[in-house]
Amino acid sequence: MSYQVLSLKWRPQAFDDVIGQDHVTKTLINAFKKDRIAQGYILTGPRGVGKTTTARIISKALNCPKTKDGIPCNSCNICQEITDGRNLDVLEIDGASNRGIEEIRSIREQIKYAPMNAPYKIFIIDEVHMLTNQAFNALLRTLEEPPSHGKFILATTDIHKVPSTIISRCQRFDFNRITETAICERLSLILQEEGISADEESLSAISRKADGSMRDALSLMDQVIAFAGESIKIEAVSSVIGLIPIDIYFDYSESILEKHSAKMLKVLQIIRTAGLPLEDVALGLIHHFRNLIVGSINGGEDLLELNDDHKKRYSENAKLWDGKDLLRMSNVLNELEFSLKRVTHPSIHFEITAMKCLEMDTSISITELLSGEESKNIKKNFEPINQTGTEDQSLPASEQEDPMAQKAEKVSVKKPPAQHNNITLEEIEKKWSKFVEKINQERPSIGTILAHSNPYELKGNLLVIKVYNLPKFSVGNLERNNQVIEKFIEEHYGVSLKLKAIISDEVEPEKNVEIIEEPVLSKEANGDDVVTRVLEVFDGEILR
């Protein structure tokens, strides 16, 4: 006897065997019990969730001589013929290849004749949405009032393509995607009957890859069994179905959380060298951040369809994130997944997006922005690294993680002394407006803040400045851009200085030097404090 694939061998033969569609099977069983059978049914839903299988079970329940309350015996000749697809009174028609008006006219002629050896003549039209408009119109009258011995069962994956006039003449059943838990339980039962062992992680991975389709899950399981034999491990599953390790997703998100460029580059290198499909990686990242969002909610851990170890990992990792940042990252990744199919160089686009995510600042609400309050939800991981007393983040990861390498580096390499003795605070004040003007040309968001600041004190190589008439988060913005500002200071003044900004409650003193002109707002804008603040903070302008 030739080998039979799992999806056919374990095809449900009764309503109780159909998993994940209790709302459908219970309704049909009750309809048979009460003898309330419709003349037509339309079954709709994703692929591989049991639409055609249910249509065959309905046919057996109608025609089986031993049926009881909608449960066929599955042992008589009629049940066997319907299971094998060779019963003359149950005709299965492919709507994709029999989509014209002539084929429908043929159905109208056939349904007039009584069935040969069963109570009903049943027509199952699969992928019914492929019929032409003329074919649908020809089917309307017969579908509404078929002979007493005639029944129609229509199946489709695209219900929106079926005319409403057809739908209104049938009882509609919407099939759902099957949950990962239900698929896992079914696979475990099948493997137990087949005498094959598999670890829980392997079953979970296959269920997740099947994306709600039981047929896809069984097809994947067939591949894995052919590769791994009778003992299935997660390594074999990863090799066969191209499973992307969950560590890649966590390393990706943690790189963003820690602003760790070297770690992100390592992740991108793994994705590139492993030849992972970028669209699959992007989709996996979308699900990853979705899990983080769910895990950040109280009780959300129970909603994750994952094993216990992964649930715990997501729940703990989610605590490090701000909810607004997770939502923003999800939006960026959705745009990435959409654009990967359209760009000329997907790999470059993918990597640039990753580096762009590294540069994103933490989110802050408009209310907090305009009121001048700092966000209370900002995590420590998003705070800029203190520019004094910490290792250089541009060093290779191996040197950063190895204390001995750091010690050796400190002994053998001596940094040149800072050149703070070559300049005074008065000289800095004299050239400050020119410095602000220069930085404003290249980084307006920084220059706008510095335009409301004055040099206050010079301690060794530490320059302290005061910021006036701006909210407290402005200082945080300067701190996040310390390295950029210090680079501009070195270029403009010719000395290497560290910068520290403090907020001042005092009124900004008048400057004796040239001050950068503020953009002139329209009369309407000047009259609106909110608009004024938004323009000032975001370095904007009103366009007419």
Descriptive notes:
By secondary structure, the protein is an alpha/beta fold. It has four domains: 169 residues, Rossmann fold; 62 residues, Helicase, Ruva Protein, domain 3; 113 residues, Zinc Finger, Delta Prime, domain 3; 118 residues, DnaA, N-terminal domain (GMP Synthetase, Chain A, domain 3, 2-Layer Sandwich), CATH 3.30.300. 51% of the residues lie in helices and 10% in strands. The chain is built from 27 helices and ten strands. Strands 2-3-4-1-5 form a five-stranded parallel sheet, covered by helices on one side. A three-stranded mixed sheet has the order 8-9-10. Helix 6 links the parallel strand 3 and strand 4. Helix 9 packs across helix 10 and helix 9 packs parallel to helix 11. The longest helix has 18 residues. The termini are far apart. About 12% of the residues have low confidence.
Keyword list:
elongated; about 550 residues; Helicase, Ruva Protein, domain 3; Rossmann fold; 27 helices; Zinc Finger, Delta Prime, domain 3
